[in-house]
Amino acid sequence: MGKNDHAVLICPAFFDYKVLIENQLTKRFTSVHSFSDRPLCSSIGKALIKYNIANYNHFISRQYSQQLLENITPLIHDITTVIIVKGTCISPLLIKGIKKLNPHVRVLVYCWDSIANSNGFVQLAAVADKAMSFDFADCQQHQLEYVPLFYPDDNTSIAESNKSAKCFQYSFIGSYHGDRAKLLYKLLNNEQTISAKSFIKIYFQSKIQFCVFYLLDPYVRKCPKEWITFDIIDRDTMNDIFSDSRFIIDIHHKGQSGLTMRTWETLSLDYNLLTTNPYVLLHQPIAAIDILDRTNGIVWNKDQKQQFVTQVAIGNISTTPLSLSHWLDTLLK
Length: 333
Known about the structure:
By secondary structure, this protein is of the alpha/beta class.
Protein backbone atom coordinates (compact mmCIF):
# COMPACT_ATOMS: atom_id res chain seq x y z
CA MET A 1 0.00 0.00 0.00
CA GLY A 2 1.04 3.63 -0.49
CA LYS A 3 2.68 5.78 2.17
CA ASN A 4 -0.46 7.77 3.02
CA ASP A 5 -3.16 5.27 2.10
CA HIS A 6 -6.18 5.16 4.36
CA ALA A 7 -8.72 2.34 4.48
CA VAL A 8 -12.32 2.19 5.65
CA LEU A 9 -13.67 -1.05 7.10
CA ILE A 10 -17.44 -1.46 7.47
CA CYS A 11 -18.07 -4.79 9.13
CA PRO A 12 -20.38 -6.53 11.63
CA ALA A 13 -19.09 -6.75 15.19
CA PHE A 14 -19.27 -10.54 15.02
CA PHE A 15 -17.45 -12.06 18.01
CA ASP A 16 -13.85 -10.73 17.71
CA TYR A 17 -13.42 -11.15 13.95
CA LYS A 18 -13.87 -7.44 13.20
CA VAL A 19 -11.00 -6.59 15.56
CA LEU A 20 -8.81 -9.26 13.96
CA ILE A 21 -9.48 -7.79 10.51
CA GLU A 22 -8.73 -4.27 11.76
CA ASN A 23 -5.40 -5.44 13.19
CA GLN A 24 -4.38 -6.94 9.86
CA LEU A 25 -5.44 -3.83 7.94
CA THR A 26 -3.25 -1.62 10.14
CA LYS A 27 -0.26 -3.57 8.77
CA ARG A 28 -1.23 -2.59 5.23
CA PHE A 29 -2.53 0.99 5.55
CA THR A 30 -1.38 4.19 7.23
CA SER A 31 -4.72 4.52 8.97
CA VAL A 32 -7.85 2.37 9.29
CA HIS A 33 -11.27 3.88 9.97
CA SER A 34 -13.64 1.23 11.25
CA PHE A 35 -17.43 1.22 11.46
CA SER A 36 -20.17 -1.30 12.15
CA ASP A 37 -22.38 -2.30 9.21
CA ARG A 38 -25.47 -1.31 11.19
CA PRO A 39 -26.27 1.35 13.80
CA LEU A 40 -26.41 0.61 17.50
CA CYS A 41 -29.92 -0.56 18.34
CA SER A 42 -31.98 -2.63 20.74
CA SER A 43 -32.93 -6.28 20.29
CA ILE A 44 -36.25 -5.11 18.86
CA GLY A 45 -34.44 -2.83 16.42
CA LYS A 46 -32.21 -5.71 15.31
CA ALA A 47 -35.31 -7.82 14.63
CA LEU A 48 -36.91 -4.99 12.64
CA ILE A 49 -33.73 -4.72 10.56
CA LYS A 50 -33.30 -8.45 10.05
CA TYR A 51 -36.86 -9.08 8.88
CA ASN A 52 -37.31 -5.64 7.23
CA ILE A 53 -40.61 -5.15 9.03
CA ALA A 54 -42.57 -2.25 7.53
CA ASN A 55 -39.60 -1.62 5.21
CA TYR A 56 -37.56 -0.62 8.26
CA ASN A 57 -34.26 -2.00 6.95
CA HIS A 58 -34.46 0.11 3.77
CA PHE A 59 -35.26 3.23 5.78
CA ILE A 60 -32.52 2.76 8.37
CA SER A 61 -29.97 1.76 5.70
CA ARG A 62 -30.38 5.05 3.84
CA GLN A 63 -30.20 7.01 7.09
CA TYR A 64 -27.17 5.14 8.45
CA SER A 65 -25.33 5.26 5.11
CA GLN A 66 -25.73 9.04 5.03
CA GLN A 67 -24.20 9.23 8.54
CA LEU A 68 -21.26 7.11 7.43
CA LEU A 69 -20.72 9.25 4.33
CA GLU A 70 -20.60 12.38 6.52
CA ASN A 71 -17.98 10.69 8.73
CA ILE A 72 -15.89 9.62 5.76
CA THR A 73 -16.10 12.87 3.75
CA PRO A 74 -13.37 14.84 5.63
CA LEU A 75 -10.88 12.07 4.79
CA ILE A 76 -12.17 11.19 1.34
CA HIS A 77 -9.04 12.26 -0.57
CA ASP A 78 -6.77 10.16 1.68
CA ILE A 79 -8.94 7.05 1.42
CA THR A 80 -7.89 4.55 -1.24
CA THR A 81 -9.88 1.48 -0.20
CA VAL A 82 -13.28 0.78 1.33
CA ILE A 83 -14.09 -2.76 2.46
CA ILE A 84 -17.71 -3.58 3.25
CA VAL A 85 -18.38 -6.95 4.89
CA LYS A 86 -22.01 -8.15 4.62
CA GLY A 87 -23.44 -4.61 4.73
CA THR A 88 -26.57 -5.28 6.80
CA CYS A 89 -27.60 -1.61 6.86
CA ILE A 90 -25.53 -0.25 3.99
CA SER A 91 -27.26 1.33 1.01
CA PRO A 92 -25.76 1.43 -2.51
CA LEU A 93 -26.11 5.20 -2.09
CA LEU A 94 -23.07 5.11 0.23
CA ILE A 95 -20.87 3.61 -2.48
CA LYS A 96 -22.22 6.03 -5.07
CA GLY A 97 -21.61 8.94 -2.69
CA ILE A 98 -18.02 7.85 -2.06
CA LYS A 99 -17.37 7.48 -5.80
CA LYS A 100 -18.86 10.90 -6.49
CA LEU A 101 -16.53 12.54 -3.96
CA ASN A 102 -13.47 10.53 -5.02
CA PRO A 103 -13.75 8.30 -8.11
CA HIS A 104 -10.36 6.75 -7.36
CA VAL A 105 -11.53 5.02 -4.16
CA ARG A 106 -11.71 1.26 -4.64
CA VAL A 107 -14.79 -0.31 -3.01
CA LEU A 108 -14.71 -4.02 -2.20
CA VAL A 109 -17.73 -5.92 -0.85
CA TYR A 110 -17.65 -9.34 0.77
CA CYS A 111 -20.53 -11.45 2.07
CA TRP A 112 -19.86 -13.94 4.85
CA ASP A 113 -23.52 -14.85 5.02
CA SER A 114 -25.87 -16.28 2.41
CA ILE A 115 -27.59 -13.85 0.04
CA ALA A 116 -30.88 -15.15 1.45
CA ASN A 117 -29.86 -13.62 4.81
CA SER A 118 -28.32 -10.50 3.23
CA ASN A 119 -30.95 -9.23 0.84
CA GLY A 120 -29.22 -5.93 0.12
CA PHE A 121 -25.84 -7.41 -0.81
CA VAL A 122 -26.68 -7.96 -4.49
CA GLN A 123 -27.40 -4.24 -4.85
CA LEU A 124 -24.06 -3.40 -3.19
CA ALA A 125 -22.25 -5.82 -5.48
CA ALA A 126 -23.73 -4.12 -8.54
CA VAL A 127 -22.01 -0.79 -7.76
CA ALA A 128 -18.79 -2.06 -6.12
CA ASP A 129 -15.44 -2.51 -7.86
CA LYS A 130 -15.13 -6.07 -6.62
CA ALA A 131 -17.79 -8.36 -5.13
CA MET A 132 -17.02 -11.60 -3.32
CA SER A 133 -18.77 -14.23 -1.21
CA PHE A 134 -17.91 -17.29 0.87
CA ASP A 135 -20.91 -19.17 -0.49
CA PHE A 136 -20.45 -21.52 -3.47
CA ALA A 137 -24.07 -21.44 -4.64
CA ASP A 138 -24.41 -17.66 -4.31
CA CYS A 139 -21.23 -17.10 -6.32
CA GLN A 140 -22.56 -19.22 -9.16
CA GLN A 141 -26.02 -17.67 -9.11
CA HIS A 142 -25.00 -14.01 -8.74
CA GLN A 143 -21.63 -14.06 -10.59
CA LEU A 144 -19.60 -13.25 -7.49
CA GLU A 145 -15.97 -14.18 -6.92
CA TYR A 146 -15.59 -17.09 -4.51
CA VAL A 147 -13.29 -16.31 -1.58
CA PRO A 148 -13.51 -18.74 1.35
CA LEU A 149 -13.53 -17.48 4.90
CA PHE A 150 -10.42 -17.49 7.05
CA TYR A 151 -8.81 -18.73 10.20
CA PRO A 152 -6.89 -16.35 12.53
CA ASP A 153 -3.18 -16.10 11.81
CA ASP A 154 -2.32 -16.90 15.43
CA ASN A 155 -4.34 -20.13 15.40
CA THR A 156 -1.82 -22.62 16.74
CA SER A 157 -2.35 -26.01 18.29
CA ILE A 158 -0.45 -27.59 21.13
CA ALA A 159 0.83 -30.94 19.94
CA GLU A 160 0.84 -32.57 23.36
CA SER A 161 -2.76 -31.47 23.98
CA ASN A 162 -3.85 -33.08 20.73
CA LYS A 163 -2.19 -36.36 21.69
CA SER A 164 -3.55 -36.56 25.22
CA ALA A 165 -6.91 -37.91 26.33
CA LYS A 166 -9.74 -35.46 25.74
CA CYS A 167 -12.06 -34.20 28.45
CA PHE A 168 -14.97 -33.73 26.01
CA GLN A 169 -16.24 -36.03 23.30
CA TYR A 170 -18.03 -33.16 21.55
CA SER A 171 -17.93 -29.37 21.81
CA PHE A 172 -20.04 -26.68 20.21
CA ILE A 173 -19.89 -22.90 20.71
CA GLY A 174 -22.08 -20.74 18.50
CA SER A 175 -25.08 -18.46 18.08
CA TYR A 176 -28.62 -19.78 18.03
CA HIS A 177 -30.22 -20.10 14.62
CA GLY A 178 -32.35 -22.46 12.55
CA ASP A 179 -32.18 -26.08 13.66
CA ARG A 180 -29.01 -25.90 15.74
CA ALA A 181 -30.76 -26.70 19.04
CA LYS A 182 -32.65 -29.58 17.39
CA LEU A 183 -29.54 -31.17 15.87
CA LEU A 184 -27.47 -30.81 19.03
CA TYR A 185 -30.24 -32.28 21.14
CA LYS A 186 -30.72 -35.24 18.77
CA LEU A 187 -27.01 -35.91 18.40
CA LEU A 188 -26.25 -35.79 22.09
CA ASN A 189 -29.34 -37.79 23.07
CA ASN A 190 -28.51 -40.59 20.64
CA GLU A 191 -27.96 -43.90 22.43
CA GLN A 192 -24.36 -43.91 21.17
CA THR A 193 -23.53 -40.42 22.46
CA ILE A 194 -25.82 -39.86 25.45
CA SER A 195 -23.13 -40.91 27.93
CA ALA A 196 -20.43 -38.78 26.32
CA LYS A 197 -19.24 -35.70 28.17
CA SER A 198 -19.73 -32.61 26.00
CA PHE A 199 -19.30 -28.85 26.15
CA ILE A 200 -22.22 -27.07 24.47
CA LYS A 201 -22.92 -23.33 24.50
CA ILE A 202 -25.72 -21.83 22.39
CA TYR A 203 -25.40 -18.05 22.42
CA PHE A 204 -28.45 -15.76 22.47
CA GLN A 205 -27.99 -12.02 21.87
CA SER A 206 -30.53 -11.13 24.55
CA LYS A 207 -32.99 -12.65 26.99
CA ILE A 208 -35.79 -11.33 24.81
CA GLN A 209 -34.48 -13.37 21.86
CA PHE A 210 -34.20 -16.42 24.11
CA CYS A 211 -37.78 -16.01 25.39
CA VAL A 212 -39.15 -15.73 21.84
CA PHE A 213 -37.44 -18.91 20.64
CA TYR A 214 -38.16 -20.69 23.92
CA LEU A 215 -41.80 -20.35 22.94
CA LEU A 216 -41.30 -21.10 19.23
CA ASP A 217 -38.68 -23.87 19.28
CA PRO A 218 -39.49 -27.00 21.32
CA TYR A 219 -35.83 -28.02 21.22
CA VAL A 220 -34.77 -24.83 22.98
CA ARG A 221 -37.12 -25.89 25.78
CA LYS A 222 -35.56 -29.38 25.78
CA CYS A 223 -31.97 -28.14 25.91
CA PRO A 224 -30.20 -28.42 29.28
CA LYS A 225 -29.98 -25.04 31.00
CA GLU A 226 -26.19 -25.13 30.97
CA TRP A 227 -26.23 -25.09 27.16
CA ILE A 228 -27.70 -21.57 27.07
CA THR A 229 -25.50 -18.48 27.36
CA PHE A 230 -25.89 -14.73 26.91
CA ASP A 231 -22.17 -14.07 27.20
CA ILE A 232 -19.67 -14.27 24.36
CA ILE A 233 -16.92 -16.75 25.17
CA ASP A 234 -13.46 -15.24 24.70
CA ARG A 235 -11.11 -16.75 22.14
CA ASP A 236 -8.59 -18.10 24.67
CA THR A 237 -11.29 -19.99 26.58
CA MET A 238 -12.78 -21.25 23.33
CA ASN A 239 -9.41 -22.53 22.13
CA ASP A 240 -8.88 -24.33 25.44
CA ILE A 241 -12.26 -26.07 25.09
CA PHE A 242 -11.60 -27.08 21.49
CA SER A 243 -8.13 -28.42 22.27
CA ASP A 244 -9.72 -30.61 24.94
CA SER A 245 -12.44 -31.98 22.62
CA ARG A 246 -12.38 -35.09 20.48
CA PHE A 247 -14.85 -33.61 17.95
CA ILE A 248 -15.76 -29.99 17.26
CA ILE A 249 -19.30 -29.58 15.93
CA ASP A 250 -20.14 -27.11 13.17
CA ILE A 251 -23.80 -26.59 12.18
CA HIS A 252 -24.20 -24.23 9.24
CA HIS A 253 -27.30 -22.36 8.07
CA LYS A 254 -29.55 -24.52 5.91
CA GLY A 255 -29.50 -21.98 3.10
CA GLN A 256 -25.69 -21.72 2.95
CA SER A 257 -23.05 -23.70 1.12
CA GLY A 258 -20.08 -21.58 2.30
CA LEU A 259 -17.75 -22.84 5.01
CA THR A 260 -17.88 -21.09 8.39
CA MET A 261 -15.04 -19.57 10.40
CA ARG A 262 -15.49 -22.43 12.86
CA THR A 263 -14.72 -24.87 10.04
CA TRP A 264 -11.49 -23.12 9.04
CA GLU A 265 -10.36 -22.63 12.64
CA THR A 266 -10.91 -26.33 13.34
CA LEU A 267 -9.11 -27.49 10.21
CA SER A 268 -6.19 -25.09 10.71
CA LEU A 269 -5.62 -26.63 14.15
CA ASP A 270 -5.88 -30.16 12.75
CA TYR A 271 -8.77 -31.02 15.08
CA ASN A 272 -11.56 -33.49 14.25
CA LEU A 273 -14.54 -31.78 12.60
CA LEU A 274 -18.14 -32.98 12.64
CA THR A 275 -20.08 -30.70 10.30
CA THR A 276 -23.42 -30.52 8.54
CA ASN A 277 -21.80 -28.86 5.51
CA PRO A 278 -20.54 -31.41 2.95
CA TYR A 279 -18.88 -28.68 0.84
CA VAL A 280 -15.89 -28.95 3.18
CA LEU A 281 -15.12 -32.20 1.34
CA LEU A 282 -14.02 -30.07 -1.63
CA HIS A 283 -11.25 -28.61 0.53
CA GLN A 284 -10.09 -31.55 2.62
CA PRO A 285 -9.41 -35.29 2.19
CA ILE A 286 -12.60 -37.29 2.64
CA ALA A 287 -11.16 -39.42 5.40
CA ALA A 288 -10.37 -36.34 7.53
CA ILE A 289 -13.95 -35.06 7.84
CA ASP A 290 -17.18 -36.41 9.36
CA ILE A 291 -20.44 -35.17 7.83
CA LEU A 292 -23.57 -35.04 9.99
CA ASP A 293 -26.77 -35.49 7.97
CA ARG A 294 -29.12 -32.83 9.31
CA THR A 295 -32.22 -34.73 8.15
CA ASN A 296 -31.61 -37.80 10.29
CA GLY A 297 -28.65 -36.98 12.57
CA ILE A 298 -26.58 -39.86 11.14
CA VAL A 299 -22.92 -39.52 10.14
CA TRP A 300 -22.19 -40.16 6.44
CA ASN A 301 -20.14 -43.15 5.38
CA LYS A 302 -17.23 -42.99 2.94
CA ASP A 303 -19.42 -43.82 -0.11
CA GLN A 304 -21.84 -40.98 0.66
CA LYS A 305 -18.95 -38.53 0.94
CA GLN A 306 -17.40 -39.71 -2.32
CA GLN A 307 -20.76 -39.48 -4.10
CA PHE A 308 -21.15 -35.84 -3.02
CA VAL A 309 -17.67 -34.88 -4.24
CA THR A 310 -18.31 -36.59 -7.58
CA GLN A 311 -21.68 -34.90 -8.14
CA VAL A 312 -20.77 -31.33 -7.16
CA ALA A 313 -19.29 -29.32 -10.02
CA ILE A 314 -17.51 -26.13 -8.94
CA GLY A 315 -15.86 -25.10 -12.21
CA ASN A 316 -12.83 -22.86 -11.72
CA ILE A 317 -13.65 -21.90 -8.13
CA SER A 318 -10.57 -21.86 -5.94
CA THR A 319 -10.67 -24.07 -2.86
CA THR A 320 -7.45 -22.93 -1.19
CA PRO A 321 -7.73 -22.51 2.63
CA LEU A 322 -6.84 -19.01 3.78
CA SER A 323 -5.38 -17.50 6.92
CA LEU A 324 -6.76 -14.06 7.74
CA SER A 325 -3.70 -12.33 6.28
CA HIS A 326 -3.99 -14.28 3.02
CA TRP A 327 -7.76 -13.67 2.97
CA LEU A 328 -7.13 -9.94 3.10
CA ASP A 329 -4.49 -10.18 0.40
CA THR A 330 -7.04 -11.98 -1.79
CA LEU A 331 -9.64 -9.28 -1.18
CA LEU A 332 -7.19 -6.49 -1.93
CA LYS A 333 -5.41 -7.93 -4.98
